TrEMBL record:
Subcellular location: Cell membrane; Membrane
Membrane-protein topology: Multi-pass membrane protein
Superkingdom: Bacteria
The name this protein goes by in its record: Transport permease protein
Keywords for this protein: Antibiotic resistance, Cell membrane, Membrane, Transmembrane, Transmembrane helix, Transport
Family membership noted in the UniProt record: Belongs to the ABC-2 integral membrane protein family.
Length: 267
């Protein structure tokens, strides 16, 4: 028992060391953080003010209140690119190999990256909330339901970062980020983020409704009390359950894959 707690304490200490290393890297390169925070703000301004007037919500309501929950979730999704670039960059520079040569817990590197990226995502979400409040977004269902919505958003980010860690370790080449973006952007746009699925062709609407991103967006709209499409399908009616299930499934699959991939590098 003592040995088990000793190994656990060792793993936690190593994880925190890697977390601090990753956070220090961001502090030393603030421009990267600022650009990452400003990009979703630009998307909000573009869609909220340039295109929003052309979008009529089937049930009525303010488009920017409809948009902001989608933008919160999309920001969590796009964090996968940051995770992928950082992990692949460390692998390409040999940093990952140096970590593996040290007497440290085998899961600490990937766990430390996940903690650091999740903390960064909290900052990104806070910036988006401030942006939303500035453009007129509000939550209407009380602080408890709002906190539950933010919890679902961070759960989605946790799932996406494990996918990003695994892909970064598998690919190991930061120049493949463009290919990652080609995969991520359709996931963001074929969803209920910007328009209700019922405005799409039937086959595309079905794809959009079962998109994991759509589940989180629909769930947080409901929890915030923001306007959204009427629940006319199983996915829409059970959005909160799916917003929990999709990320948990992704974590259950990709967290072990990422840890195993790290341990098996160069074998």
């Amino acid at each position: 028992m003592t040995a088990m707690f000793g190994r656990l304490g060792w793993a936690v200490a190593d994880t925190w060391t890697i977390t601090r290393r990753d956070l220090t890297h961001w502090v030393n390169q603030p421009a990267q953080i600022v650009i990452g925070l400003l990009f979703p703000v630009m998307i909000v301004l573009m869609f909220g003010y340039l295109f929003g007037g052309a979008v009529a919500l089937p049930g009525g309501g303010d488009y920017r209140e409809f948009l902001m929950p989608g933008m919160f979730a999309m920001t969590m999704l796009f964090g996968i690119e940051t995770t992928f670039a950082a992990v692949a960059g460390d692998a390409a520079k040999g940093v990952t190999d140096r970590f593996r040569s040290m007497p440290m817990s085998g899961s600490a590197v990937v766990a430390g990256r996940s903690v650091a990226d999740l903390l960064n995502s909290v900052l990104g979400l806070a910036v988006m909330v401030i942006c939303g409040l500035a453009v007129g977004w509000r939550f209407h269902e009380g602080a408890g339901r709002a906190l539950a919505a933010f919890g679902l958003l961070l759960l989605l980010r946790l799932a996406m970062l494990w996918v990003g860690i695994w892909l970064g370790l598998v690919v190991g080449r930061p120049e493949m980020l463009t290919a990652m973006q080609i995969l991520v952007w359709p996931l963001a746009f074929v969803s209920n983020t910007f328009v209700p699925p019922e405005t799409m062709p039937a086959w595309l609407a079905a794809v959009a409704e079962w998109n994991p991103l759509s589940a989180t967006v629909a769930a947080v709209r409901d929890l915030f009390g923001n306007p959204g499409p009427a629940a006319a399908s199983f996915a829409a009616e059970h959005a909160i359950a799916l917003a929990l299930a999709w990320p948990l499934v992704l974590i259950a699959v990709f967290a072990p894959l990422a840890t195993r991939r790290y341990r098996d590098l160069n074998r």
